[in-house]
């Protein structure tokens, strides 16, 4: 056993404002080149199952003639310039929280769901990989519990922070002693809003916030509410 306390943190919608990045700023960058938002979204759905990247998405659009071949290089430049440094998409409390864990020598692990290369692009762009003892990526839903199993054998007090209560439920069912924090980054008023702009701004995160949970989890809106 390695020892006492350890943290396992989810990435998307927990540390990283994925909605603002992917559903607001990335489409806006593409829209500058007169790419129809609907075409953008449909092509996203096509590319996603093959392992997503912005470059692949662009290639797909170019093949389908949704992007003129003369625009491809210009778009690539925009992607490189605007979306290489993704630190601005971290929620404001993330770095202070990770630094505090580091100072107190509390081991911290990152667990993200999605295509490994795409997740690595976001984590590296956010410049936080060095804070973690290990970065895990899984493509299967509900597979996080397996990582938790392995860590729970190593640490007496393990805490998990995630925006998806279904993942936390599976963890709790298998390891009741693991502390679970269900974080919701969506402001309460935005959860109920019927304004399409607000719905787009919190497009994915809103869905998780209202899911039913089988087990009680600590609910929070910020990492400042997560006790070390
Ligand atoms: Mg998440």
Written account of the structure:
This protein is α/β, with parallel strands linked by helices. The chain has two domains: 147 residues, HAD superfamily/HAD-like (Rossmann fold), CATH 3.40.50.1000; 62 residues, no CATH class. It has eleven helices and six strands. The chain starts with a strand and ends in an 8-residue tail after the last strand. Bound molecules: magnesium ion. The site of magnesium ion (MG) has 7 residues, from loops.
Task: Sketch the major β-sheet.
Answer: 6 strands, parallel
**Number of helical regions:** 11
State the shape. Answer: globular
Strand arrangement, major sheet: 3-2-1-4-5-6
Give helix % range: 40-55%
Overall structural class, as computed from helix and strand content, comes to alpha/beta
CATH level-3 fold name of the largest domain: Rossmann fold
The top level CATH class name of the largest domain? Alpha Beta
Assembly type:
single chain
Radius of gyration: 19 Å
Bound molecules: magnesium ion
- Provide the low-confidence segments as ranges: none
CATH superfamily heading of the largest domain:
HAD superfamily/HAD-like
Number of spatially distinct domains: 2
Distance between termini?
19 Å
What is the number of beta strands? Answer: 6
